[in-house]
Design goal:
With 240 residues, the protein is an alpha/beta fold. It has two domains: 3-19 and 101-238, 3-Layer(aba) Sandwich (Rossmann fold), CATH 3.40.50; 20-97, DNA polymerase, domain 1. Helix content is 48%, strand content 11%. It has helices spanning 20-34, 41-58, 64-78, 85-92, 104-111, 125-135, 145-148, 155-167, 182-191, 227-238; strands at 8-11, 116-121, 141-144, 175-179, 196-199, 222-224. Strands 3-2-1-4-5-6 form a six-stranded parallel β-sheet, with helices on both faces. The two termini are 15 Å apart.
């Protein structure tokens, strides 16, 4: 199997293309300091990750800003700190401020010359539109949790992805899924037989950050430390 064997590439957005840990941390860090919470930034992210995933599983039809709001309140409760409406709203409305990884826009532009590009994201349409402006590339299809009515790692999201790509005229077996999260993306994608690429953004750090640990250890077909590395490999194979 080669990277040139595919006609479409689907992406997780947050953690892969957008630095959601920086975005979430920019809200949680000042909040924790203001309330005398002594947890490290990594401890806050890991605690938050479990809470957000729980809310997504329990409220699959909720819009992502409402998930963020509820998760922020639950995080505070777990630490014995009251969260005000203004504090939870700050996280709920922060997605548009989350930065793109520096290599994402150029890598996506390069990949768009070879593949159809698809987003499969755990957010709502309005939140993704703000992030898409930062990425600066046209996606041939955009599938959000709002569209599906559930959040990854639910298999339904990936089944909707497969059907959407078929509707674009892409043959079965010609879709490659690219993501950072083993929990949200690689485990369900591999269970459906989708080839995957792991963008290992956290390779230099211990722990899982804003992503819960996977219930099992999947085996991606390729691993790259960055989107730039992935795009370069695709370009290299195309020109061999």
């Amino acid at each position: 199997m080669q990277l040139t064997d595919f006609d479409a590439v689907s992406f997780d957005c947050y953690g892969t293309l957008i630095d959601w840990e920086a975005g979430i941390g920019a809200v949680l860090g000042p909040w924790a300091s203001a309330h005398g919470v002594t947890a490290t930034s990594e401890e806050l992210l890991e605690r938050y990750a479990q809470i957000e995933a729980r809310w997504e599983a329990e409220q699959p039809a909720a819009l992502y800003p409402d998930i963020l709001d509820a998760a922020m309140r639950s995080l505070g409760a777990s630490l014995g700190v009251d969260v005000s409406a203004a504090e939870s709203e700050r996280l709920a409305t922060s997605v548009g401020d989350w930065p793109a990884f520096p290599d994402s826009p150029a890598a996506l532009r390069a990949l768009s010359q070879q593949y159809k590009l698809v987003i499969l994201s755990n957010v709502d349409r309005a939140s993704f539109a703000m992030s898409n402006a930062r990425l600066g590339v046209h996606f041939d299809a955009i599938i959000t949790a709002q569209d599906v009515g559930s959040y990854k790692p639910t298999l339904k999201n990936f089944e909707v992805l497969v059907e959407a790509v078929r509707a674009m005229g892409v043959e079965d077996g010609r879709l490659l899924h690219v993501a950072q999260s083993l929990f949200h993306d690689h485990v369900p994608a591999r269970s459906l037989g989708l080839p995957t690429v792991w963008i290992d953004r956290r390779r230099a750090r211990h722990g899982w950050g804003a992503t819960p640990p996977p219930p099992e250890t999947p085996t991606p077909d390729w691993t790259f430390p960055s989107m730039a590395g992935f795009a370069a490999a695709c370009h290299s194979e195309q020109n061999e």
